[in-house]
């Protein structure tokens, strides 16, 4: 049966958001999951503020930025209720600034950053949510913990007092069949869940982008990070989402 047509929405961003929400809903239905199990993170890096404002008006509530300084310049241009997620690498000298805006960090890629976040959060009375980034393909160009030996490497981080480590994040190698990478991240999540130090954690999975989020949802993604399929081509930014 063909899906219902997407109604006309006032802006190109609004129409793309409606289409994305429809695709996410259908992917959840196919996977036997409720729609509310998946959070759409709109990757707004390199996008002009008017597109973010259009997305907010159309119903997007979670925005993902790669660069702390860029996000800080955009934050005041959106309502205070907007939720900001950091999805790019975080340097130690940007931790203080990052916690001034971001409530969730998807890119904790080494123990040093986790400890720095916990210290700063403790001083501010915060409890940010964090994903541990895993370099699934051991690619030199990407950040993250090695998949091999992950459980032992990250075990000490479970005791950090001022972070809520909620799950795992990955940007897998390019693959025409991406599901095997999503399955690998899910298996690593399950391995951690079985260990006592992670008992009761949320076990979320941040995986899937513009070209593969449907496959990611089928494999259990709780957060999908979608940029160009929502906002269109970027302005003044190189790289892919």
Outline:
This protein is 35% helix and 17% strand. It is of the alpha/beta class.
Q: What does this protein structure show overall?
A:
The structure is a single chain. The protein has 241 residues and is an alpha/beta fold. The chain has one domain: Alanine racemase (TIM Barrel), CATH 3.20.20. The chain is 35% helix and 17% strand. The protein has helices at residues 12-31, 49-58, 68-74, 95-98, 111-124, 150-154, 179-193, 213-218, 228-231; strands at 39-43, 62-65, 83-86, 104-108, 129-135, 145-146, 164-169, 204-206, 223-226. Strands 1, 2, 3, 4, 5, 6, 7, 8 and 9 form a nine-stranded parallel β-sheet that branches. The radius of gyration is 17 Å and the shape is globular. The two termini are 31 Å apart.
């Amino acid at each position: 049966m063909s899906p219902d047509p997407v109604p006309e929405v006032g802006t190109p961003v609004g129409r793309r958001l409606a289409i994305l929400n429809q695709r996410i809903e259908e992917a959840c239905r196919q996977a036997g999951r409720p729609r509310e199990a998946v959070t759409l993170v709109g990757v707004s890096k390199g996008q002009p503020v008017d597109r973010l404002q259009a997305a907010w008006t159309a119903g997007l509530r979670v925005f993902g930025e790669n660069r702390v300084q860029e996000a800080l310049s955009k934050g005041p241009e959106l309502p205070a209720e907007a939720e900001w997620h950091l999805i790019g690498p975080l340097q130690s000298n940007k931790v203080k600034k990052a916690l001034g805006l971001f409530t969730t960090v998807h890119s904790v890629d080494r123990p040093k950053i986790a400890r720095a976040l916990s210290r700063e959060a403790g001083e501010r009375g915060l409890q940010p949510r964090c994903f541990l980034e895993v370099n699934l393909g051991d690619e030199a160009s990407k950040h993250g913990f090695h998949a091999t030996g992950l459980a032992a490497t990250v075990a000490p981080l479970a005791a950090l007092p001022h972070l809520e480590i909620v799950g795992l994040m990955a940007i897998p190698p390019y693959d025409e069949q991406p599901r095997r990478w999503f399955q690998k991240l899910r298996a690593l999540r399950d391995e951690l869940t079985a260990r006592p130090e992670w008992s009761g954690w949320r076990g979320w999975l941040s995986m899937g982008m513009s070209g593969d989020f449907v496959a990611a949802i089928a494999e259990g993604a709780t957060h999908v990070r979608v940029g160009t399929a929502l906002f269109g081509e970027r302005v003044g930014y190189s790289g892919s989402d």
